[in-house]
């Protein structure tokens, strides 16, 4: 009876241990799959951020080219304005001189006045063009600042994604190592159970042999007594 009970207890302990180990291994495997899914999501998000970053960098380069073009155009307008202003000053000086020296040269004065009017119109047009170019340049600079801020935010998100990816890889490595240790413990427990079952089996066989020997001795003693 004691042997049967010991055998039953060992079998129950073996079953409980295997069930517990299966539950632990299943828990770690579920966590491992969840982390692998999370890693895939992070890699996908990282790829999307990289694509967006490349697009925004291309736009930034385009804005920089446009800004340089606007600055170049603004310089041309300023040089043209200075040239026209210098011509206007010269013409006004000539006109004043002619009014003082030759009041009779009315036709020349009219011609010079027409030139002055034309130069003033050119100055007006140059100022208008310069204002438009300046406004366009201000808008381009503002958009460039916003774009740089967006790129900075994307770079920060990319860095955060890389940190999360690295942490997930570390956790996966840790779980894989824990799974290896758990598997080794399971194998060790299984070998212990097999050893106990073998010892139990050998013990039972020894007891059966002893009982048979005792029966034989009793039978021989009975025959001798008869």
TrEMBL record:
Keyword Lyase: no
Coiled coil: 25-59, 109-199
Keywords, sorted A to Z: Coiled coil
Span list, region Disordered: 1-21, 202-226
Extent of Acidic residues compositional bias: 204-214
Signal peptide: none
Domain of life: Eukaryota
Ranges annotated as biased composition (Basic and acidic residues): 215-226
Membrane-spanning intervals of the chain: none
The protein, known as: Protein phosphatase 1 regulatory subunit 21
Source organism (scientific name): Angiostrongylus costaricensis
């Amino acid at each position: 009876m004691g042997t049967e009970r010991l055998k039953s207890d060992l079998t129950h302990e073996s079953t409980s241990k295997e069930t517990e180990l299966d539950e632990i291994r299943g828990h770690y495997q579920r966590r491992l799959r969840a982390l692998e899914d999370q890693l895939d999501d992070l890699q996908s998000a990282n790829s999307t951020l990289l694509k967006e970053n490349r697009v925004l960098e291309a736009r930034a380069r385009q804005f920089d080219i446009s800004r340089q073009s606007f600055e170049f155009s603004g310089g041309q307008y300023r040089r043209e304005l200075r040239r026209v202003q210098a011509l206007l000053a010269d013409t006004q000086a000539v006109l004043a001189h002619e009014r003082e020296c030759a009041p009779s040269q009315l036709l020349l004065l009219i011609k010079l006045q027409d030139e002055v009017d034309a130069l003033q119109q050119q100055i007006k047009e140059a100022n208008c063009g310069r204002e438009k170019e300046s406004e366009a340049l201000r808008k381009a600079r503002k958009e460039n600042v916003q774009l740089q801020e967006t790129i900075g935010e994307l770079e920060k998100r990319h860095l955060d994604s890389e940190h999360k990816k690295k942490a997930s890889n570390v956790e996966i490595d840790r779980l894989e190592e824990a799974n290896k240790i758990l598997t080794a413990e399971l194998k060790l427990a299984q070998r212990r159970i097999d050893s106990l079952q073998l010892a139990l089996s050998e013990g039972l066989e020894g007891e059966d042999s002893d009982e048979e020997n005792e029966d034989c001795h009793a039978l021989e003693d009975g025959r001798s007594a008869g």
